[in-house]
Amino acid sequence: MNEITKGLIALVVILAITGGIYGYELMEKNVLKEGDFAEIYYIGYFENGTVFASSFSENVSWDTPFDSSKYNLAPLKIYFGEGFPHKFPEGWTYGDLGTIEGLRINEIPGLYEGMKGMKKGQEKIFVLQPEEAFGKPVENGTTFVTSTILGFNATFEIIKIGGVTVDVRWVPEEGEVITMPQYWQDIPIQQPYWVWKNATKVISFNETHVVLETTPNKLEGITLYPWWENASTAGYNETKIWIVTTPPLGNFTISAFGYVIHGKVVNITEDKIKIEYYVGNQTINDELNRTVTFDRQIELPRVFKGIQKVYIEDDLKKMGYSFHELAGKKVTFRVKLLKIYRIS
């Protein structure tokens, strides 16, 4: 019986749940790896020994032992992996997963990497630099790359930090080439520079604005109106761009924002496209200019105010920065691994 007991490394429990059957193992000798669940005791403290978070209910010092017979200790339940787990150990739910100062274990990179390979019952100490812990602090002058603000990857500089928002300034380079978006943050771009990919260049800029110039890199088979594909041609000179549209005569359909509008191209003249479209029982006659002419250069703002922090914090994290109140702090963690659970 004793030999059999020694050979039992894991207790396998089969659970019936909605949508299927799966199992988990309560790992006794295995090491912690990505995808596991675990229970830990922890204590986090600064260089001067001040404790900022722990599994203890009472105030303790940095070196207080993890002794549940003497102290009130609450195990922290964690998912040791990226993303959202879809299956949980018996009796666990997503709401049971705990955080340390508002962050999951995988959001504290030095702790996450350090805990890989820990064994049940093992205790370890991790001394973390700011970028390994809660991140480097975001300050005025911090630069980062994001596509959230303009729709293309661009470098921005933090110029003002508020409670839940920041003001930022785009940091362009002369000669930098972009694809013009249809919206410049919240400003609609009225002229169709966006028809051409990688055709708009930074000409100059000052503290608040940037001048962009578009050089069409495709002149035939252009789609200006999505319901008339490849029906436009373009031309340009030193200062202007023009697009001429020649749609086929007959029926067309416009789909936008959940609405479908049926119409017909009735006639095309040198200057106009004459159409009719149908709304309910009404037939509406209208006309469009065949030729659209606009400036090759446009001036737009570099400064964007009131950007929600939540929209850019992931991009800042990729570069080691954080808005967390403990950002910039060197911290130490003592961790004891109590149990490991592995979903099968």
User: Count of helices?
Assistant: 3
CATH class of the domain at 2-135 and 329-343: Alpha Beta
SS class: mainly beta
Rounded to an integer in angstroms, the radius of gyration calculated over CA atoms is 30 Å
Mean pLDDT: 91
Question: At the third CATH level, what is the topology name of the domain at 2-135 and 329-343?
Answer: Chitinase A, domain 3
Could you explain how this protein is built, in words?
The chain is mainly beta. It has a domain at 2-135 and 329-343: Chitinase A, domain 3, CATH 3.10.50.40. It is built from 3 helices and 26 strands. It has helices spanning 2-7, 109-115, 309-318, and strands spanning 10-17, 20-27, 36-46, 51-54, 76-80, 123-128, 136-137, 143-146, 154-161, 165-170, 177-178, 183-184, 187-188, 200-205, 209-214, 232-236, 240-245, 250-256, 259-268, 272-279, 282-289, 291-295, 297-301, 303-308, 321-322, 331-343. The strands form 7 sheets. Strands 1, 2, 3, 4, 5, 6 and 26 form a 7-stranded antiparallel beta sheet that branches. The protein has a 4-stranded antiparallel beta sheet with strand order 8-9-10-24. It has a 4-stranded antiparallel beta sheet with strand order 11-14-15-23, with no helix packed on it. A hairpin with a 2-residue loop joins strand 20 and strand 21 (282-289). The longest helix is centred in the C-terminal third of the chain and has 10 residues, at 309-318. Mean pLDDT is 91; it is low at 1-22.
